[in-house]
Amino acid sequence: AKQAGRNGYSIYDTSMRRRAERALAIQRGLHAAIEDGSLSLHYQSKHDSATGAIVGAEALARWTHPELGEVPPMEFIAVAERSGQIGRIGEWVIREACRQIGAWRGQGMAPLRIAINLSPLQLNQSGFVDTAARIAAEAGVDPALILFEVTESIAMENAERTRLMLRDFRERGFEFAIDDFGTGYSSLAYLQKFQVRQLKIDRFFVQALDEGGPEARAIIAAIIDLAHTLAIEVVAEGVETQLQASVLRTLGCDQLQGYHFSRPLPPEEFERHCRTLMVL
Ligand code: C2E
Ligand code: CA
Ligand code: CA
Ligand code: CA
Protein backbone atom coordinates (compact mmCIF):
# COMPACT_ATOMS: atom_id res chain seq x y z
CA ALA A 1 0.00 0.00 0.00
CA LYS A 2 3.04 2.27 0.51
CA GLN A 3 3.55 2.49 -3.26
CA ALA A 4 -0.01 3.73 -3.72
CA GLY A 5 1.14 7.35 -3.46
CA ARG A 6 -0.81 10.37 -2.41
CA ASN A 7 -3.67 9.88 -4.84
CA GLY A 8 -4.04 6.24 -3.92
CA TYR A 9 -4.36 7.15 -0.29
CA SER A 10 -6.86 9.92 -0.82
CA ILE A 11 -9.10 7.73 -2.99
CA TYR A 12 -8.88 5.07 -0.33
CA ASP A 13 -9.72 7.58 2.40
CA THR A 14 -12.69 8.90 0.44
CA SER A 15 -14.26 5.52 -0.12
CA MET A 16 -13.58 4.56 3.49
CA ARG A 17 -15.22 7.74 4.67
CA ARG A 18 -18.23 7.19 2.39
CA ARG A 19 -18.67 3.71 3.73
CA ALA A 20 -18.38 4.91 7.31
CA GLU A 21 -20.92 7.67 6.63
CA ARG A 22 -23.33 5.23 5.06
CA ALA A 23 -22.99 2.86 8.01
CA LEU A 24 -23.64 5.75 10.38
CA ALA A 25 -26.72 6.84 8.40
CA ILE A 26 -27.99 3.24 8.51
CA GLN A 27 -27.33 3.02 12.22
CA ARG A 28 -29.21 6.27 12.89
CA GLY A 29 -32.05 5.28 10.59
CA LEU A 30 -32.43 1.89 12.25
CA HIS A 31 -32.98 3.63 15.54
CA ALA A 32 -36.31 4.97 14.34
CA ALA A 33 -37.14 2.14 11.97
CA ILE A 34 -38.80 -0.21 14.42
CA GLU A 35 -41.22 2.47 15.62
CA ASP A 36 -41.98 4.15 12.29
CA GLY A 37 -42.96 1.01 10.43
CA SER A 38 -40.27 1.30 7.74
CA LEU A 39 -38.98 -2.13 8.70
CA SER A 40 -41.06 -5.01 7.35
CA LEU A 41 -40.98 -8.72 6.63
CA HIS A 42 -41.43 -10.37 3.27
CA TYR A 43 -42.25 -14.05 2.98
CA GLN A 44 -40.86 -16.58 0.53
CA SER A 45 -42.68 -19.90 0.17
CA LYS A 46 -41.08 -23.30 0.70
CA HIS A 47 -42.67 -26.01 -1.46
CA ASP A 48 -43.08 -29.73 -1.07
CA SER A 49 -40.95 -30.99 -3.95
CA ALA A 50 -43.33 -33.81 -4.89
CA THR A 51 -46.65 -31.93 -4.84
CA GLY A 52 -45.62 -28.29 -5.15
CA ALA A 53 -47.79 -27.46 -2.12
CA ILE A 54 -46.63 -24.63 0.13
CA VAL A 55 -45.38 -26.15 3.37
CA GLY A 56 -43.75 -23.14 4.97
CA ALA A 57 -42.22 -19.74 4.37
CA GLU A 58 -39.07 -17.85 5.23
CA ALA A 59 -39.41 -14.37 6.70
CA LEU A 60 -36.89 -11.94 5.21
CA ALA A 61 -36.38 -8.47 6.62
CA ARG A 62 -36.88 -5.46 4.36
CA TRP A 63 -36.03 -1.86 5.08
CA THR A 64 -36.32 1.39 3.20
CA HIS A 65 -34.20 4.21 4.57
CA PRO A 66 -35.71 7.69 4.11
CA GLU A 67 -32.71 8.92 2.06
CA LEU A 68 -30.73 5.83 1.10
CA GLY A 69 -33.76 3.95 -0.22
CA GLU A 70 -33.93 0.19 0.09
CA VAL A 71 -31.02 -1.18 2.11
CA PRO A 72 -30.28 -4.91 1.68
CA PRO A 73 -30.78 -6.97 4.86
CA MET A 74 -27.20 -8.27 4.74
CA GLU A 75 -26.03 -4.68 5.04
CA PHE A 76 -28.31 -3.38 7.79
CA ILE A 77 -28.08 -6.58 9.82
CA ALA A 78 -24.28 -6.26 9.74
CA VAL A 79 -24.52 -2.63 10.88
CA ALA A 80 -26.98 -3.59 13.62
CA GLU A 81 -24.60 -6.28 14.85
CA ARG A 82 -21.72 -3.84 15.13
CA SER A 83 -23.81 -1.11 16.74
CA GLY A 84 -25.53 -3.39 19.25
CA GLN A 85 -28.99 -2.84 17.73
CA ILE A 86 -29.33 -6.45 16.60
CA GLY A 87 -31.04 -7.45 19.84
CA ARG A 88 -33.93 -5.04 19.32
CA ILE A 89 -34.22 -5.75 15.61
CA GLY A 90 -34.07 -9.49 16.10
CA GLU A 91 -36.82 -9.29 18.71
CA TRP A 92 -38.89 -7.16 16.39
CA VAL A 93 -38.55 -9.78 13.65
CA ILE A 94 -39.82 -12.53 15.97
CA ARG A 95 -42.68 -10.35 17.26
CA GLU A 96 -43.71 -9.32 13.75
CA ALA A 97 -43.57 -12.91 12.44
CA CYS A 98 -45.70 -14.06 15.41
CA ARG A 99 -48.17 -11.24 14.81
CA GLN A 100 -48.41 -12.32 11.16
CA ILE A 101 -48.92 -15.98 12.07
CA GLY A 102 -51.79 -14.87 14.33
CA ALA A 103 -53.28 -12.65 11.63
CA TRP A 104 -53.19 -15.46 9.07
CA ARG A 105 -54.78 -17.81 11.56
CA GLY A 106 -57.51 -15.22 12.10
CA GLN A 107 -58.13 -15.18 8.34
CA GLY A 108 -58.59 -18.93 8.34
CA MET A 109 -55.36 -19.71 6.47
CA ALA A 110 -53.85 -23.14 7.13
CA PRO A 111 -50.96 -22.77 9.59
CA LEU A 112 -47.52 -22.55 7.97
CA ARG A 113 -44.19 -23.01 9.67
CA ILE A 114 -42.38 -19.68 9.42
CA ALA A 115 -38.59 -19.57 9.26
CA ILE A 116 -36.75 -16.74 10.99
CA ASN A 117 -33.08 -16.02 10.37
CA LEU A 118 -30.84 -15.63 13.40
CA SER A 119 -27.58 -13.72 13.38
CA PRO A 120 -24.53 -14.98 15.27
CA LEU A 121 -24.85 -12.40 18.02
CA GLN A 122 -28.46 -13.32 18.72
CA LEU A 123 -27.53 -16.95 19.06
CA ASN A 124 -24.92 -16.02 21.63
CA GLN A 125 -27.11 -13.62 23.57
CA SER A 126 -27.84 -14.97 27.01
CA GLY A 127 -31.55 -15.13 27.69
CA PHE A 128 -32.43 -15.16 24.00
CA VAL A 129 -34.24 -18.49 24.28
CA ASP A 130 -36.42 -17.08 27.06
CA THR A 131 -37.10 -13.92 25.08
CA ALA A 132 -38.18 -15.86 22.00
CA ALA A 133 -40.39 -18.14 24.10
CA ARG A 134 -42.00 -15.13 25.83
CA ILE A 135 -42.69 -13.35 22.53
CA ALA A 136 -44.33 -16.46 21.06
CA ALA A 137 -46.39 -17.01 24.21
CA GLU A 138 -47.56 -13.37 24.28
CA ALA A 139 -48.70 -13.70 20.67
CA GLY A 140 -50.42 -17.02 21.38
CA VAL A 141 -48.23 -18.76 18.79
CA ASP A 142 -47.21 -22.39 19.11
CA PRO A 143 -43.36 -22.39 19.03
CA ALA A 144 -43.55 -25.44 16.74
CA LEU A 145 -44.68 -23.03 14.02
CA ILE A 146 -41.35 -21.19 14.27
CA LEU A 147 -38.20 -22.54 12.72
CA PHE A 148 -35.00 -20.63 13.30
CA GLU A 149 -32.38 -20.67 10.53
CA VAL A 150 -28.72 -20.51 11.55
CA THR A 151 -25.90 -20.71 9.02
CA GLU A 152 -23.65 -23.73 9.07
CA SER A 153 -20.49 -21.70 9.60
CA ILE A 154 -21.97 -19.97 12.65
CA ALA A 155 -23.37 -23.18 14.08
CA MET A 156 -19.96 -24.82 13.73
CA GLU A 157 -17.96 -21.90 15.11
CA ASN A 158 -18.55 -23.24 18.56
CA ALA A 159 -20.35 -26.48 17.95
CA GLU A 160 -20.66 -27.52 21.58
CA ARG A 161 -22.23 -24.22 22.58
CA THR A 162 -24.56 -24.42 19.58
CA ARG A 163 -25.62 -27.91 20.62
CA LEU A 164 -26.59 -26.67 24.09
CA MET A 165 -28.44 -23.65 22.67
CA LEU A 166 -30.39 -25.80 20.24
CA ARG A 167 -31.30 -28.15 23.05
CA ASP A 168 -32.71 -25.22 25.05
CA PHE A 169 -34.71 -24.05 22.03
CA ARG A 170 -36.02 -27.53 21.39
CA GLU A 171 -37.12 -27.86 25.00
CA ARG A 172 -39.32 -24.79 24.39
CA GLY A 173 -40.74 -26.39 21.26
CA PHE A 174 -38.92 -24.37 18.58
CA GLU A 175 -37.53 -25.98 15.42
CA PHE A 176 -34.18 -25.35 13.79
CA ALA A 177 -32.63 -25.39 10.32
CA ILE A 178 -28.98 -25.22 9.32
CA ASP A 179 -28.77 -22.58 6.58
CA ASP A 180 -26.27 -22.32 3.70
CA PHE A 181 -25.31 -25.94 4.19
CA GLY A 182 -22.30 -27.22 2.28
CA THR A 183 -20.25 -24.04 2.54
CA GLY A 184 -18.84 -24.76 6.01
CA TYR A 185 -17.36 -27.82 7.59
CA SER A 186 -19.84 -29.80 9.63
CA SER A 187 -18.79 -32.83 11.50
CA LEU A 188 -21.18 -35.67 11.11
CA ALA A 189 -21.16 -36.24 14.85
CA TYR A 190 -22.42 -32.71 15.53
CA LEU A 191 -24.99 -32.75 12.81
CA GLN A 192 -26.52 -35.69 14.62
CA LYS A 193 -26.22 -34.06 18.05
CA PHE A 194 -27.81 -30.80 16.88
CA GLN A 195 -31.10 -32.59 16.14
CA VAL A 196 -32.18 -29.95 13.67
CA ARG A 197 -35.31 -30.36 11.58
CA GLN A 198 -33.88 -29.10 8.28
CA LEU A 199 -30.73 -28.62 6.28
CA LYS A 200 -30.85 -25.93 3.62
CA ILE A 201 -28.53 -26.63 0.70
CA ASP A 202 -26.75 -23.45 -0.25
CA ARG A 203 -27.79 -21.69 -3.45
CA PHE A 204 -24.26 -22.11 -4.80
CA PHE A 205 -24.74 -25.87 -5.30
CA VAL A 206 -28.22 -25.43 -6.75
CA GLN A 207 -26.95 -22.97 -9.34
CA ALA A 208 -24.00 -25.22 -10.14
CA LEU A 209 -26.51 -27.84 -11.34
CA ASP A 210 -26.94 -25.76 -14.50
CA GLU A 211 -23.30 -26.16 -15.46
CA GLY A 212 -24.12 -29.76 -16.20
CA GLY A 213 -21.05 -31.30 -14.57
CA PRO A 214 -21.58 -34.27 -12.28
CA GLU A 215 -19.97 -32.64 -9.21
CA ALA A 216 -22.81 -30.44 -7.94
CA ARG A 217 -25.26 -33.26 -8.47
CA ALA A 218 -23.05 -35.70 -6.56
CA ILE A 219 -22.54 -33.28 -3.67
CA ILE A 220 -26.27 -32.60 -3.40
CA ALA A 221 -27.05 -36.32 -3.55
CA ALA A 222 -24.53 -36.92 -0.75
CA ILE A 223 -26.00 -34.15 1.43
CA ILE A 224 -29.52 -35.52 0.93
CA ASP A 225 -28.42 -39.07 1.78
CA LEU A 226 -26.59 -37.88 4.87
CA ALA A 227 -29.53 -35.79 6.06
CA HIS A 228 -32.07 -38.53 5.46
CA THR A 229 -29.92 -41.00 7.37
CA LEU A 230 -30.23 -38.60 10.31
CA ALA A 231 -33.97 -38.07 9.68
CA ILE A 232 -33.38 -34.43 8.73
CA GLU A 233 -35.46 -32.73 5.99
CA VAL A 234 -33.56 -31.19 3.08
CA VAL A 235 -34.53 -27.87 1.54
CA ALA A 236 -32.85 -26.47 -1.56
CA GLU A 237 -32.68 -22.67 -1.67
CA GLY A 238 -32.22 -20.42 -4.66
CA VAL A 239 -34.09 -22.72 -7.07
CA GLU A 240 -34.50 -20.57 -10.17
CA THR A 241 -35.24 -22.97 -13.02
CA GLN A 242 -37.49 -25.87 -13.91
CA LEU A 243 -34.39 -27.95 -14.60
CA GLN A 244 -32.97 -27.37 -11.12
CA ALA A 245 -36.33 -28.18 -9.57
CA SER A 246 -36.68 -31.46 -11.45
CA VAL A 247 -33.11 -32.61 -10.73
CA LEU A 248 -33.59 -31.81 -7.03
CA ARG A 249 -36.89 -33.69 -7.01
CA THR A 250 -35.22 -36.70 -8.62
CA LEU A 251 -32.47 -36.62 -6.00
CA GLY A 252 -35.09 -36.78 -3.24
CA CYS A 253 -34.80 -33.22 -1.93
CA ASP A 254 -37.84 -32.68 0.33
CA GLN A 255 -38.55 -28.98 -0.16
CA LEU A 256 -37.72 -26.36 -2.76
CA GLN A 257 -37.47 -22.60 -2.36
CA GLY A 258 -36.52 -19.94 -4.87
CA TYR A 259 -37.54 -17.50 -7.58
CA HIS A 260 -38.80 -20.39 -9.75
CA PHE A 261 -41.67 -20.67 -7.27
CA SER A 262 -41.89 -17.18 -5.85
CA ARG A 263 -39.84 -14.19 -4.81
CA PRO A 264 -40.09 -13.06 -1.21
CA LEU A 265 -43.43 -11.20 -1.08
CA PRO A 266 -45.12 -8.70 1.23
CA PRO A 267 -47.83 -10.40 3.35
CA GLU A 268 -50.86 -9.54 1.17
CA GLU A 269 -49.15 -10.76 -2.00
CA PHE A 270 -47.96 -13.86 -0.17
CA GLU A 271 -51.58 -14.58 0.82
CA ARG A 272 -52.63 -14.27 -2.82
CA HIS A 273 -49.78 -16.57 -3.87
CA CYS A 274 -51.00 -19.17 -1.34
CA ARG A 275 -54.61 -18.92 -2.50
CA THR A 276 -53.63 -19.23 -6.17
CA LEU A 277 -51.75 -22.45 -5.46
CA MET A 278 -54.61 -23.91 -3.45
CA VAL A 279 -57.20 -23.59 -6.21
CA LEU A 280 -54.88 -25.16 -8.79
P1 C2E B 1 -30.45 -16.17 3.51
O1 C2E B 1 -31.01 -16.52 4.84
O2 C2E B 1 -29.52 -17.17 2.89
O3 C2E B 1 -31.69 -15.86 2.58
C1 C2E B 1 -31.80 -16.22 1.22
C2 C2E B 1 -31.56 -15.04 0.32
O4 C2E B 1 -31.64 -15.49 -1.04
C3 C2E B 1 -32.58 -13.93 0.45
O5 C2E B 1 -31.92 -12.69 0.18
C4 C2E B 1 -33.57 -14.26 -0.68
O6 C2E B 1 -34.32 -13.14 -1.11
C5 C2E B 1 -32.62 -14.73 -1.74
N1 C2E B 1 -33.24 -15.63 -2.69
C6 C2E B 1 -34.34 -16.40 -2.55
N2 C2E B 1 -34.59 -17.12 -3.65
C7 C2E B 1 -33.61 -16.83 -4.53
C8 C2E B 1 -33.32 -17.27 -5.88
O7 C2E B 1 -33.99 -18.10 -6.47
N3 C2E B 1 -32.20 -16.73 -6.45
C9 C2E B 1 -31.42 -15.83 -5.83
N4 C2E B 1 -30.37 -15.34 -6.48
N5 C2E B 1 -31.67 -15.39 -4.56
C10 C2E B 1 -32.75 -15.89 -3.93
P2 C2E B 1 -32.21 -11.41 1.08
O8 C2E B 1 -33.67 -11.30 1.37
O9 C2E B 1 -31.53 -10.25 0.42
O10 C2E B 1 -31.47 -11.75 2.43
C11 C2E B 1 -30.08 -11.88 2.45
C12 C2E B 1 -29.60 -12.38 3.78
O11 C2E B 1 -29.89 -11.42 4.81
C13 C2E B 1 -30.28 -13.66 4.24
O12 C2E B 1 -29.66 -14.77 3.59
C14 C2E B 1 -30.04 -13.61 5.72
O13 C2E B 1 -28.73 -14.07 6.02
C15 C2E B 1 -30.09 -12.12 6.01
N6 C2E B 1 -31.41 -11.76 6.58
C16 C2E B 1 -32.56 -11.46 5.97
N7 C2E B 1 -33.55 -11.20 6.85
C17 C2E B 1 -33.00 -11.37 8.08
C18 C2E B 1 -33.50 -11.26 9.43
O14 C2E B 1 -34.68 -10.99 9.69
N8 C2E B 1 -32.61 -11.49 10.45
C19 C2E B 1 -31.30 -11.85 10.20
N9 C2E B 1 -30.49 -12.07 11.25
N10 C2E B 1 -30.80 -11.96 8.95
C20 C2E B 1 -31.64 -11.73 7.91
CA1 CA C 1 -32.16 -18.20 5.61
CA1 CA D 1 -29.53 -19.43 2.92
CA1 CA E 1 -26.90 -16.77 2.96
UniProtKB/TrEMBL annotation:
Domain EAL intervals: 23-278
Protein name according to UniProt: Diguanylate cyclase
Parent-record interval covered: 410 to 689 of 692
